[in-house]
Design goal:
Layout: E1 3-7, E2 10-14, E3 22-26, E4 31-37, H1 39-50, H2 53-59, H3 64-79, H4 84-91, H5 96-99, H6 109-121, H7 123-138, E5 144-153, E6 178-186, E7 191-198, H8 207-217, E8 224-227, H9 234-243, E9 246-250, H10 253-256, E10 266-270, E11 273-279, H11 281-310, H12 317-330, H13 332-335, E12 338-344, E13 350-356, H14 358-367, E14 370-375, H15 382-389, H16 392-404, H17 416-441, H18 449-456, E15 460-467, E16 473-479, H19 484-492, E17 501-504
Parallel strand pairs: 5-8, 8-9
Antiparallel strand pairs: 1-2, 2-3, 4-15, 5-6, 6-7, 9-14, 10-11, 11-14, 12-13, 15-16, 16-17
Helix pairs in contact: 1-3, 1-17, 3-4, 3-6, 3-17, 4-6, 6-17, 8-9, 11-12
């Protein structure tokens, strides 16, 4: 520790040493150098250690250096997602290398490519051991399993990747090839497993692979699987029963409109199943807004067609009926509420007329915001069933983080295994993110990782350089003084405020 006192343009530095020497410095010539970002990297490094990722990686054959390379990849994806070349540049601007032991002497893009490949080759073992550690660390019950799918698209042709295909794009990028990603989470939102599928894979086709992964992880555990309507076919439910799983699923939209079920949050037993019709005010408002938008478009197009016919620009009855059919196909959501047809007057002049069915309108209004849920869990109340089902929003939130904050979208890699490694790095980064946010929520702190990351960004490490009057130079490596709000974040995460003050060789 150095102490100082001022004498005109100089400051005396007193260094506790065997010789108890005092040095004078030129205040005006003091400077800082090697300023490095510390706060977000410190938190990520601490949770890397809490999740025992070094122990897990060494257990699958990683060397100490490979563990450090893996940590750079994953923390880089968590803090500043970018290309592998960009990660090399980012790493040099942070204090992460000073936090890690042993530190890296150098870092190249090729090293990051190779470590991504190695991580993906050991994916199953890493995910299984991570799940065990998270269960131990956070006391997870893991009796509920959530499964859903997303997609991520490629920049470029991806000609060398057999999984890259055109398919239903959840990113609204039907012009790009893509892959489909299926993810299994527990009820607390921690990832348990993931799979990468061809971009043209239908949702239901991923189900068997998911159940195989689940069987390997939960062989002796009574589990309830929660899935959305894209996976709720009778074949999939039969497969769940055959494998010994309970299930909670939502039915398809057409089944939701079954008039035999009254509109109320209620239980109804049908054979071995329980049906629950639940209502969401938020969803009701969204349903109405969507229907109103399509209703306006439908009526505008119907009026346009009627004017064409009335003006004599479209006369052939067969072509008029074809135009009516195309109009109904374009707006299936609202066309069923209208009687739209071709009529002719006494002179044989054609006209297109439509009438809105008030009865179906009323029924549709009543069904807005409703969900019909099927389950074989007869021991649960309708409120408990609904609460479990809406847990799927956690999967959707996970996908949003993966895509927007953890660099999952878009994919620039063109080779198959490298793409899967890229996705796995994002999944591992999400393990860190979710562990950090879980710890915050334990202290009633609902802030998200992007907010925490930005608040900690200004907590940095720097070298203070003093030029002494005896022509020597003294360098001190220190952490910046922590702000009160930063200290609060560290405290809620259960981490000590990082402190470093050491003299460097001059």
């Amino acid at each position: 520790m150095l102490s100082a006192y001022a004498t005109s343009s100089c400051v005396n530095l007193r260094e506790p040493s065997p010789g108890d020497q005092t040095k004078q410095i030129y205040v005006e010539e003091s400077a800082t150098e090697q300023i490095r970002e510390l706060g977000p990297e410190y938190v990520a490094h601490a949770f890397w250690q809490q999740l025992h990722l070094d122990r897990i990686l060494k257990g699958v054959g990683f060397s100490a250096k490979q563990c450090r390379l893996a940590e750079v990849q994953v923390i880089g994806r968590l803090v500043a997602p970018r290309s592998d070349l960009g990660t090399v540049s980012w790493f040099g601007r942070t204090a992460l290398n000073e936090l890690m032991q042993p530190s890296l002497q150098s870092l190249t893009e090729d090293q990051l490519y190779r470590i991504s490949d190695r991580l993906y080759r050991n994916r199953s073992d890493i995910e299984a051991q991570l799940a065990d550690r998270e269960r131990e660390l956070f006391g997870l019950a893991e009796t509920i399993v959530l499964y859903d799918l997303t997609s991520t698209y490629f920049e470029g042709l991806a000609a060398a990747n057999p999984l890259a295909r055109h398919g239903h794009s959840r990113d609204h990028r039907g012009d790009c090839k893509q892959v489909v990603v299926g993810m299994v989470l527990d009820e607390d939102g921690f990832p348990k497993a993931h799979e990468v599928f061809s971009g043209n894979t239908r949702d239901s086709q991923t189900f068997t692979d998911m159940l195989d992964r689940l069987k390997a992880r939960e062989a002796n555990r009574q589990v309830t699987v929660v899935v959305d309507r894209g996976l709720s076919s009778d074949e999939n439910l039969a497969l769940l029963r055959q494998r010994g799983y309970h299930y909670i699923v939502t039915t398809r939209q057409s089944q939701r409109s079954d008039g035999t079920v009254s509109v109320a949050a209620q239980l109804r037993r049908v054979g071995d199943e329980v049906l629950v019709l639940c209502h969401s005010q938020r969803r009701a408002a969204k349903d109405r807004a969507i229907r109103d938008r399509f209703t306006t478009r439908f009526e505008e197009d119907a009026a346009r067609l009627a004017r064409r016919v009335a003006g004599g620009r479209l006369k052939n009855p067969e072509k008029i009926n074809q135009a009516i059919g195309r109009l109904k196909e374009r707006y299936p959501r609202v066309a069923r509420h209208y009687e739209l047809q071709l009529r002719t007057d006494a002179t044989g002049k054609p006209a297109v007329e439509w009438d809105r069915h008030k009865q179906t309108d009323a029924a549709t209004d009543e069904l807005d915001g409703t969900y019909l849920i099927r389950t074989d869990r007869s021991d649960l109340s309708q409120q408990e069933i609904w609460k479990l089902y809406v847990m799927l929003s956690r999967v959707e939130r996970s996908f949003r983080y993966l895509k927007s904050d953890l660099g999952l979208r878009p994919v620039f890699h063109q080779k198959g295994p490298r793409v899967e490694g890229h996705i796995f790095i994002s999944v591992l980064a999400y393990h860190l993110l979710h562990a950090i946010q879980r710890r915050l929520t334990e202290h009633s702190d609902q802030r998200t990782w992007p907010t925490i990351r930005d608040l900690l960004f200004t907590h940095q490490m720097a070298t203070i350089v003093h030029r002494c009057t005896d022509e020597t130079v003294m360098r001190l490596r220190v952490c910046s003084t922590v702000e009160a709000y930063q200290a609060e974040i560290y405290q809620r995460l259960g981490l000590p405020v990082p402190e470093l003050k050491r003299r460097l060789q001059t």
